[in-house]
Specification:
The protein has helices at 3-14, 21-31, 34-39, 42-59, 63-73, 126-141, 154-164, 186-195, 212-222, 237-247, 262-272, 281-287, 307-315, 322-329, 333-345; strands at residues 78-82, 101-106, 115-119, 145-148, 169-172, 197-200, 226-229, 251-254, 276-277, 320-321, 349-352, 356-359. By secondary structure, the protein is of the alpha/beta class. Strand 11 and strand 12 (356-359) form a beta hairpin.
């Protein structure tokens, strides 16, 4: 059987209304690859999935949908990845209900790179947006792929943070991959598809359906080593993602906020339930036992010898801006940004809202 014929069998199996993931996995476990499923006799199929599902399996004509999906997958940077493909995300094989196939637009290599999920409120505070962008950028610099859901708010900020760094980001969406939702994120979705990767388990043409978004959350958490919640209300889809991550054996992290902010209550709830409280990027990297390969660029100015230690002395322990540090140190903003990022990763400096930095006291 050719590769094209094999893909046709995978698509035929997954594009039958009423034959969901659980039934698909039963068939694959019993018979092997999809072509063997469709070669099996009716009585053998009935013994595995019952009469109704067998009738749907054998009598449904979805040839048009199959051909449309195959045509989509032949475009540049577009692929349909099945459970049998080496490019399939191996981390998703660890979850209870991995998708039978994935529609992928963008870089396949990111699907099997170490990832961190960053999620949060669709109505975040300005500080939450800044935190999501800065943390995502720092983690991307450290070599982690940023996974999120392309929603408004924290999700979008996380993708933007990764794009501002390496571009290594995965967006799991709750519609067909030919749809962009929400429309306000159209440009962001196109940039993620160009530099990172957009992934959907839903057939092409699947419209916006409320039930699909909680379902896609299991993939955001499942592909990652941990889930970081930046801001979340007490009732939030982000808490669903965090719960799923915990059930999947992933680490769960939360950034605390003001006790007066509704957008902090979800994070505080997670922390009470055992999520790791996060103040710096290093908190997450240490918990993941992640050894970053990031090395700050060596300044060419002779005055910069021993800069990290000297810069900490110049900072003191009060918050200060990049401009203030540039004036005190006589270093350029670019050089300072590299050094401060390295200090932040090592847990010696924290970035604050408003572009300020603060030295962390050792305890």
């Amino acid at each position: 059987m050719t590769e094209c014929e094999s893909l046709s069998s995978w698509l035929r199996l997954t594009l039958i209304p009423g034959i969901g993931g659980e039934t698909q996995r039963k068939l694959l476990t019993a018979f092997g690859l999809p072509d063997a499923v469709f070669s099996a006799d009716r009585s053998s199929l009935r013994a595995v999935i019952g009469e109704r599902s067998t009738r749907l399996l054998l009598d449904t004509d979805n040839a048009f949908l199959v051909e449309s999906a195959k045509e989509w997958s032949q475009e540049a940077d577009q692929r349909i990845v099945t459970l049998a493909d080496p490019e399939y995300p191996q981390s998703l094989l660890e979850i209870p209900d991995p998708p039978t196939l994935l529609y992928v637009r963008g870089r396949l290599d990111l699907l099997n790179r170490p990832a961190l999920a960053i999620v949060g409120s669709r109505n975040p505070t300005p500080q939450g947006i800044q935190n999501a962008e800065r943390f995502a950028s720092t983690f991307a610099d450290a070599g982690l792929v940023i996974a999120s859901g392309l929603a408004l708010g924290i999700d979008a900020a996380a993708h933007r943070g990764a794009l501002a760094s390496t571009g290594d980001t995965i967006a799991f969406i709750g519609t067909g991959i030919d749809r962009i939702y929400p429309a306000r994120n159209k440009e962001l979705a196109l940039e993620v598809a160009s530099r990172g990767v957009v992934v959907s388990e839903f057939p092409i043409g699947t419209p916006v359906t409320a039930a699909n978004f909680p379902r896609r959350n299991r993939l955001i958490s499942g592909i990652a080593r941990g889930v970081l919640v930046v801001e979340a209300a007490i009732v939030s889809g982000s808490l669903i993602t965090a719960r799923l991550g915990g059930e999947q054996g992933r680490e769960v992290f939360a950034i605390p906020g003001s006790i007066h902010s509704p957008q902090s209550r979800g994070c505080h709830k997670l922390i009470k339930q055992g999520a790791k409280l996060v103040e710096t990027a290093q908190d997450v990297l240490e918990e993941l036992n992640w050894q970053t390969t990031l090395v700050a660029a060596s300044p060419t100015n002779d005055k910069a010898d021993g800069v990290p230690h000297a810069l900490l002395s110049l900072m003191g322990f009060d918050p200060c801006s990049l401009d203030e540090l540039a004036e005190r140190s006589d270093l350029s903003a670019d050089s300072l940004s590299v050094i401060l990022l390295d200090l932040e990763l090592s847990g010696r400096v924290a970035s604050l809202p408003g572009g300020r930095y603060q030295q962390l006291q050792e305890v």
